[in-house]
Amino acid sequence: MSFHDLQSKRLNGQAVNLSEYKVCELRYKVTFPMLEKVKTKGAGQSPIYEFLARKHGEPKWNFHKYVVGKDGQVRM
Asked: What is the domain partition of the chain in residue ranges?
């Protein structure tokens, strides 16, 4: 199993503060990959979010998770 953090540039009109991710990284000792910020909704949406949203709905807030099996199927 692996975890990946896909960061949002903006969701529901709120800009994401990069320092919040650094705090999480330091406070919670995050060791999984934290990828660059991408657009999660609308025009210019990142292909990964387009795929995930098509299979299991768009993210509703600044924190959202998807579980994807080894076979590429979105589980939740």
From this structure: 1-76
Longest alpha-carbon distance in the chain: 34
Contact 59, 41 (CB under 8 A): yes
Task: Give the predicted TM-score (pTM) of the model.
Answer: 0.58
In this structure, whether the domain defined by 1-76 belongs to CATH 3.40.30.10 is answered with yes
Residue 1 one-letter amino acid: M
For 57-66, write each residue's pLDDT tens digit.
Answer: 888 776 778 8
- Planar angle of CA 9, 7, 39, nearest 5 degrees: 40
Residue 38: name the closest of 66, 61, 4, 8 by CA: 8
CB 49 within 8 A of CB 40: yes
Classify the phi-psi angles of 53: left when phi > 0, otherwise alpha if psi is within -120 to 50, otherwise beta: alpha
